[in-house]
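User: Quick sanity check before I run a bigger batch. Here is a single chain. Can you write out its predicted 3D structure?
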Amino acid sequence: MNILLVRVSSLGDVLHNMPIVADIRRHFPHANIDWVVEEGYVSLVRLNSQVRNIIPFALRRWRKSLGDKATRAEIGAFFRSLRQQEYDYVFDTQGLLKTGIIMGAARGRFKVGLANGSEGSGYEGISRIFHTKSIPLDPRTHAVARGRLVVGAVLGYTVDTPADFGLPDVSPSDPRPEWMPAEPYVVFFHGTARDTKKWAPANWIELGKALAPMTILLPWGSEKEKQEAETLAAALPNARVLPKLSMADAVLLARHAGLAVGVDTGLTHIAAAFTRPVVEIYCDSPRWKTEGNWSPKIINLGDAGSPPPVAEVLAAARTLLA
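Assistant: Done. Predicted structure follows.
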């Protein structure tokens, strides 16, 4: 059986789609699974050895130069690559017009997607015109469960096991880049695109001081986040601002963390997917939607409109470090 998964972005959403692969292979061990994903997230999907082929999609880059001959040629090559394989099933678990178009262009006997969106998520009903079957779900279904339930409903199995992201285990012998300490470290995933999802800088500083002398690493993804990281580091003698990391290195950072503390953002969820000790902080997004619930090493705190106090986060961190 040949199956194509279409989940192109964003980082957290791509990660939340990964347990589908283990589900399928558990029930259909010989299934071939391919995946269409934004080129920036190819390195993440590649960590799952059960994905046969990854088809990079580069809309974020293409839209900047749609008039260029080279860009149009690259788009044409993408669609030719997409159509090389005939699939028994194509699953679009994102529910957007762009993912529906990809589904429509793919060669597949059955094309399956979401019949409805979830609360607070982007969903474009027009995507259903590309479906041969649309699966309805409770609007409050967890982000990881949504895709799993859609695929299980069509392939005829029940989703009744903890999420398996198919990511490799951490080994002490794994090579480490120069910026990564040899000793256990804490990483603060403090940055996120939406300011209302952030935890107050004073909270990070108080937490960091309480966790001394453990080294605290501060990643960043934009100039604004870099400045925020530098502000935190200036107040924390045990903190270090990291260099600009590639996606592969950012995943490596999460994978090897002795403890990760982060707001509701993709890298926090990646650390949780690697079953690292993680404190997930919710400030302005609903906890039910993305909270880690597959490992005893994950502690979820706060909720939309109710960020957790420092004392609560510190207690969770110490529990996980004990």
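The chain has 13 helices and twelve strands.

User: Great, the batch can go ahead then.
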